C-alpha cells in the first residue's frame, strides 16, 4: 500500500522536504481528515473539495450509516440569525458576554463560528444518553427545514422532539450522527488550549469515545473520567447496580500540563510550620528518595545534613544541585526510626509569590452526587421541575482546571445542551468565589415540556424557559445575599453587575436568503431570477426590520461577538453611522436606506476602518467609489 502522505502532493503543492510538517499542521486543524492510525484519508479531503468526488462508502475504521451526511451537515453554512429577546433577558446592560440562546444547537453553533471561533475556553455538555426514552436532535430541525420553523413560528411555539428506540434499525447510528456533527462544529470554537467535557453513561460511552477520537484526535484525549454519582446502589437492577457515569475530556490541541485547585480537605493537610509560614503557609513532607523510577546514575549520590552523610537505597527524586539548594533553604527534614533514616522534603501550600499550590486531577470523581443537583434545582424552581440535573459543584470542578500552568479566571464557557442551566450557575459561583470574569454561553432547544409534567403545570412550556428562569433566580439569590454589604464591597459590586442576554434562533432578516434556485434553469437564468427576487423583496425591506435586530445579524456574520458596543460618530452629518467594537475588532456601520454622497466622500481620506452598510443603500457609482477607497474593507449586505 502506498504512503497516504504521498497522495497529498497530487492535491496540494507540497514541498517534498516539508511533508511531515505540513501534515502535522493539517492534522492540527482538521483531525477528522485522518485515519485512526494517523494517516491522511484522501477521500475525506476530497469530500471537503467536492463531496461528489467520493462515493458514500466510508473508509474510516469507525463507521456508521449517515456519517458522511453528518459531516456534510456540520459544514453546511447557516442562513439563520440570532435575535435578542429583551423581554426575557436579565439586566442586559450588565450582561457582558453572558448569553442564553434558545434554538436548535447545530444551527446556533454554526452562527457562532463567525465570531467565536477559537475563543471558547471550556465546553461542557450533557447530551441525551440515548437510553431509548430520551430524544435525539433531528437534522430535520436544520435551518431552512420546515418542521423547526413551523413549530417555533408562534410566540410560545416549541419543538416536539423525537425518541430513538431499539425498534429503529439505526439506533446507534442516529445518535452518532447527532453528536458527531455538533462536535465537529464545536471544535472550531475552542481555543488552542481549550478543553471539552462530555457527560455520558454506559449506553454510548464506547461510541462517544471513538467519535471524539475521530473529531479531536486520539492524541488529544486527556481522560475518560469516572464519576460516582450516586450514594448507594439502587434496588431495581438485574445485575450490577450502576453508581457511576463518565465524563470524556479532550483538548483542542495537545497540552503539556493539567492541574486543579486544592479543596478544603487538601489545604487542611498542610499543618507543618516554619519560618516561612507568613509567606508560604503550612507544609507537608514527601520522600526525597524513590525506588520506583528507572535507574538514573546522576540521582545516586550522597548528601550531607547535620554532619551526617546519607545515601538513598536506590536514588533521589532530584538532581544534586536542587537537593543542595533545598537543604540550604531548610526545606529538607531528616527522621530516624528504629535505626532507619528517612529524608523528606517540604512541600509548601504556597509558592514563592504567595500563589496557592495546585494538584494533579484524578480520573475518579467521588461525588458530588445526583441528589445534590436535584436539591439545587428543587430549591430554586420547585419540586420535580427538572429531572436529573448535574450538580453545580461537578461543573465547577471541571471548569476550575488550569491548562499549561496558566491560571485564567476569564474566558468563555459554552454549554450547547443547556438543560436546566447548571453551567451558567457554576460560572457565576466561580466568579463570586475568586473575582473572575468568566462568561457563559448556553444553548437550549425550545423543547416542549410534557403536558402532565410538573414543569408544564408550573408554567414552563419549554425546557428553555427553565434554563432562563433558573439563572434569573440564581442572580436574584446572589443579589439578595449581598444587600447587607456596603456598596464598595467587591461582593456587592459583583452581585450588582450580574446579568445575561437571551437570544433566539430566527430566520434571517434579509429575505434574499430564502431564494431557492430553479434546478431546471441555467446558472445565468437563476442569477437573473435572484436579482429580480432581491429587488422585489428589498423594496419593502425597511418596512419590516428593527435596526437592533439587523445589527445583531450583520455584526455576528461579520465576525463581531454579541457583546459589541456601538458609539455614534458625529463626523457623519448626513447618515447615522456608528462605531461597532468588541474585544477583537471594530468597524463603522450604517443601516440607513441611502448612503449620502458626503458619507462616501469621507472615506477618500479616512480608510482606517471597515465600513458595513446595506447593499440596497448604494447605487452603482457609490459602490464603485467606496470600493475604490476601501477595497476589501467595504462590506455591503
Short précis:
By secondary structure, the chain is of the alpha/beta class. The protein is built from 21 helices and 27 strands. The chain has four domains: 4-61, no CATH class; 81-262 and 358-505, Rossmann fold (3-Layer(aba) Sandwich), CATH 3.40.50; 264-348, no CATH class; 511-636, no CATH class.
Walk me through what this model shows.
By secondary structure, this protein is an alpha/beta fold. It folds into 4 domains: 4-61, no CATH class; 81-262 and 358-505, Rossmann fold (3-Layer(aba) Sandwich), CATH 3.40.50; 264-348, no CATH class; 511-636, no CATH class. The protein contains 21 helices and 27 strands. A 10-stranded mixed beta sheet has the order 1-22-2-21-20-3-6-8-7-18, with helices on both faces. α16 packs antiparallel against α17 (490-496). The longest helix has 20 residues, at 463-482. It is globular and about 95 Å long. Mean pLDDT is 86; it is low at 1-18 and 139-144.
Calculate Rg over CA atoms.
29 Å
What number of domains? 4
Oligomer: single chain
Provide the CATH architecture of the largest domain.
3-Layer(aba) Sandwich
Mean pLDDT: 86
Largest sheet: 10 strands, mixed
First-residue to last-residue Cα separation: 50 Å
Strand order of the largest sheet: 1-22-2-21-20-3-6-8-7-18
Percentage of residues in DSSP E strands: 15-25%
Q: Report the helical percentage.
A: 25-40%
Our count of helices gives 21
Low-confidence stretches: 1-18, 139-144
Q: Please give the number of β-strands.
A: 27
CATH fold node name of the largest domain: Rossmann fold
Question: Which geometry do the CA atoms define?
Answer: globular
